[in-house]
């Protein structure tokens, strides 16, 4: 092995470790969402505000922002509204059910992606994608039947969150070459914060009993958890993923990030004992859903697009296409 090939091998191995570390950190987002006592609305508002504020301190963000057209800026801002609604419904699903159920719902995001993309691009669906979507249906049915009836609303909200992941992921893909990823993230999270602020009066109606007041200063414990969620589980893995993606194929990253719901469920079981809230059939359903998602990269057609890391920073489901 030459020095050059040894160096590439070492860089690839390091990138694998980095992306798996990112996936573990993303798995903690559901855990922190359950641990934080604030409402889903307040939690998401603070998270988006802190990340957007941190990114606004970077000179490269402002340089790219000044060079961006108003049309592209408006497009990213609109996607930011979808990001905010995705996070809001994801954390609401956690509050309405538990972290394991919400993570399972988000796992169907790539299946929504496979089904929505043909409609967006006005082409015929891929048969393999339809079959994988059908394969996941029994798993979803098992999950629904294995949770207490009081958690069913959480499942519905979680599925809505997964659909939102697919929609804003596809929209981001169409604009992938538009600007610097950090700038895109800053715009989308900044516009998402503004959108949530404007939507605050409607949230109690949209999510009965889970809106809460907007301007609630978190206590010390919640403040520390929110800071961890914003920086350790959002900005840090985002920065690491930017580095790792230089040395890994989109296919390799897809396989790694598909582990996220598994990590989240294992962590929720260990930390919160959530296995006591559901029947064993729940985990069989999870296995079917996650199995369908794992198979997808192997049977999907090759694509020329490279993964856009700005999507990784904002979804609890990190789908790579």
> Helices and strands, in N-to-C order?
HHHHHHHHHHHHHHH
Helix proportion range? over 70%
Round the mean pLDDT to the nearest integer and report it. Answer: 82
Number of E-type strands = 0
Main pleated sheet: none
What is the overall number of helices? Answer: 15
β-strand percent reads under 5%
**So what's the overall shape?**
globular
How far apart, in Å, are the first and last alpha carbons?
Answer: 32 Å
Tally of domains: 1
Oligomer: single chain
Radius of gyration: 19 Å
Pick out the low-confidence regions.
Answer: 302-311, 317-321
Structural class designation: mainly alpha
Give me some keywords for this one.
75% helix; mainly alpha
Structure description:
The protein is mainly alpha-helical. It has one domain. The chain is 75% helix and 0% strand. The chain has 15 helices and no strands. It has helices at 3-35, 40-55, 59-67, 70-96, 99-106, 109-121, 127-146, 152-174, 181-199, 203-206, 220-244, 250-257, 260-272, 280-299, 309-312. Helix 2 (40-55) runs antiparallel to helix 4, helix 2 crosses helix 11 and helix 6 packs across helix 8 (152-174).
